[in-house]
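Please decode residue identities from the backbone states below.
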């Protein structure tokens, strides 16, 4: 990925909530350094109480650092005079949509954010319509939010942030209260917003969601303990388990398939020995009859070019799209995943696992 401009820069951030009477002050964040680039999609994961929400609230000056600095597009969040400029840059969507909807009519609700930012009224009209269309809630615009389902309310809350046209949107467990379909719909809106150039910060307990980010940040006890691409992070299974975090189903499955695939190829390579043992009694083995020599050279060349681990990927592909080769596991595998090749064989960098529409690069 090309190096992009830093959008949010967090330096040595410590945050302590007001201590109760007689209690010692403890740091909810204890020295976090983090950069979020323009247009980047960053997932933040960690156990309950690890400091994710506290971190996100520091990203748009809803909380101010006890120590350290947070800069949004170069502006210090501790600078009072910049607070509204910062909130024009970073929008927030929270877990409970009921706490975010304030008006009795949906379109008024979506207009609330831009009104606060001082956007002219004709412009607000345009933005509200556009935002409601983006989350497919335009037809409900005259209705009251109390008539909506949780997922629909969350879509309206997102429309409110879209209408503010912030460059970055922070979602703090925005899908936590939704069913799998509702979660999928919100994730698809998030991915669209990302593809349109918004930076996304996604706080989630669902690793399948985190796997879709450009970068995953793992928090533990107020500190950043891991940071990297989903592939890097999920490779550290042991470390994640220590932090009581899971790896996504699709990644587990890919690993299982990879092992299976490499066993399959081992078997394939051994097959000639099994079928034609007499040919292997001499050294070098007389592998192919004379007239097939040409093909054997081609085959060996292809193996050489593809390198062994990519053969593993090929196996993943084969087993994924040909589940009948694996009748016993097909029932487990197919409802959740199909595996297919990313590009042409010559550009075989990896396989892509699709878990119910959620793409995971492995
Ligand atoms: N308003 C508050 N007053 C005092 N302490 C708080 C407050 N909010 C959070 N904390 C404490 O700060 C720490 C970090 O909390 P935070 O809400 O940031 O964690 P989190 O990672 O978002 O957790 P969760 O996954 O449960 O949402 C916790 O120890 C929590 O008890
Ligand atoms: Mg939280």
């Amino acid at each position: 990925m090309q190096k992009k401009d830093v959008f949010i820069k967090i330096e040595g951030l410590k945050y302590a909530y007001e201590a109760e009477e007689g209690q010692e002050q403890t740091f909810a964040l204890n020295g976090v350094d983090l950069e979020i680039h323009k247009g980047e999609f960053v997932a933040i994961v960690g156990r309950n109480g690890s400091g994710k929400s506290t971190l996100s609230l520091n990203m748009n000056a809803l909380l101010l650092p006890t120590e350290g600095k947070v800069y949004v597009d170069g502006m210090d969040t501790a600078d009072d005079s910049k607070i509204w400029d910062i909130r024009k840059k970073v929008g927030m969507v929270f877990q409970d949509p009921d706490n975010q909807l304030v008006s009795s009519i949906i379109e008024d609700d979506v207009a609330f954010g831009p009104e606060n930012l001082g956007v002219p009224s004709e412009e607000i009209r345009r933005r509200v319509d556009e935002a409601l269309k983006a989350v497919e809630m335009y037809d409900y615009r005259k209705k009251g939010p109390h008539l909506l389902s949780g997922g629909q309310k969350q879509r309206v809350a997102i429309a409110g942030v879209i209408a503010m046209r912030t460059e970055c949107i922070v979602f703090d467990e925005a899908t936590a209260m939704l069913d799998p379909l509702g979660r999928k719909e919100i994730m698809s809106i998030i991915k669209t917003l990302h593809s349109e150039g918004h930076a996304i910060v996604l706080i989630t307990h669902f690793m399948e969601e985190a796997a879709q980010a450009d970068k995953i940040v793992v928090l533990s006890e107020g500190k950043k303990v891991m940071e990297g691409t989903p592939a890097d992070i999920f490779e550290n299974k042991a470390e994640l388990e220590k932090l009581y975090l899971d790896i996504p189903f699709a990644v587990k499955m890919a690993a299982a398939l990879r092992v299976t695939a490499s066993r399959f190829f081992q078997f394939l390579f051994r097959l000639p020995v099994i079928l034609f043992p007499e040919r292997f009694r001499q050294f070098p083995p007389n592998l192919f009859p004379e007239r097939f020599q040409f093909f054997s050279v081609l085959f060996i060349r292809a193996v050489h070019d593809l390198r062994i681990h990519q053969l593993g990927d090929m196996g993943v592909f084969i087993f994924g799209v040909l589940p009948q080769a694996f009748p016993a596991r097909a029932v487990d595998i197919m409802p959740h995943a199909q595996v297919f090749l990313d590009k042409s064989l010559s550009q075989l960098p990896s396989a892509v696992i699709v878990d119910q529409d959620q793409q995971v690069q492995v």
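Observation: The CA atoms of residues 10 and 70 lie 5 Å apart.
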